[in-house]
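Case study B.
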Amino acid sequence: MTKKRDRRSVLQGGLGALAATTMGSSVLGSEGPGGGHSDEHGHEHPHHAPANRYLEPRRTPQENEALAERVEALENLLVEKGLVTRETLNAIVETYENDLGPMNGARVVARAWVDPEYRTRLLEDATPAITEVGYGGSQGELMVVVENTPEVHNVVVCTLCSCYPWPVLGLPPRWYKSYAYRSRVVIDPRGVLAEFGLELDESLEVRVWDSSAEVRYLVLPERPAGTAGLDEEQLAVLVTRDAMIGVSRVEAPAP
Amino acid sequence: MSGRLKREADAAVADMKGTGTLPRKSGELVFHHDWERRAFALSVALSEQGLYEWEEFRQQLIATIGAAEGSSEDPDLEAPGYFEHWLASLECVLAGKALLPSPFLDKEQSPPRSA
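Model:
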């Protein structure tokens, strides 16, 4: 675990310089000069709002100040009553803002491992198959599940910005949005995956899937050996976000 | 990551559908100001504490937004304004449980109670 994390930070660190020298390009995702890029906002603004409308300060500073005071008074009151602690509030913000778990996707993967018919449905038409397990929450984009096999390894990226199947994977990790990952994984997938600690045999075909506003990809990782005795729930625990992006394998539990 | 017990987001909160859907951009929650984060966290924390079911808060939020947006079927949830509805809903739910002193609500126009 720590080993992988170290390697990841190497990836991020190495890329800092690259990203810095290409600042102009790195904002492409949000403010691209080409007409094509405006389309990618479709999924982010299902209510047909102009692309940047959400950034407009529509509240006056006075209104904002009044609202802030109102929340502060409420928070103080509830803390005084012992109903909440500020530590809890901070932890909640952190969880929902940065750290949504990839559990939905993990359950989809585990179901596919134990139920061959479900696996077939999932690979043929992922959107309804995912809903079947109880998770939708999408904004109309199509879900496509790509399967890792002994011959093929799949990895997902969004070269344009950071399109990501968040209903099943939660929030994208920081590196997923980095210009470095987005640009390099296409040119040198094996090299990038090696930096994540995933060494792929030369015989393996590597496929890189570029997500868009319309299509979001999810990798169905290979079920690890030695897990025959585990049920769906126990398997789901093993499935990591990184494995469903395709930058790592699912490991069998330590014996 | 200070070794604190890892929290998990509740899908009932994170994946609300329809009216009341959390404002997101590329999947990430959109907060414009820190008070929005605080209001969000307060609502989740009090529900976790068992003061109300999340569904109760959600229904109030839907009622509040519905009243504010009139007959609009397409409320602009990305816009600042969403968390005003959120805050009003929280105050309303808490007032319903006699957890707020009445002066708290008198300052603001009370939203309609959800059915």
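The two ends of chain A are 16 Å apart (CA to CA). The remaining cases will be described in the next quarterly update.
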